[in-house]
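Input sequence (77 aa), recorded before submission:
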Amino acid sequence: MIPDPTAEIKRIRHQLGADDGFDLDRVYTRIQRLQDESGRVFIRRPARKPMAKDAMHPSGSAKQSVVENLSSAPGDG
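Predicted structure, token format:
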């Protein structure tokens, strides 16, 4: 059997979560404290806006062409 290459990461992550009782608020607070104490500069990016629902079709033509094809279906004459 091939060993899991992420096993050590998973073990460490589980241990860190267990240290805080798997309480996400406590985990987040501890991470923020450790970052502040490290003296390093951490870049915080602004939150991204969610994509529009029709963003999969940037031209918007796919949705319109389906409607046009349905309205001009053969046998409508």
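Checked by second reader. The chain has three helices and no strands.
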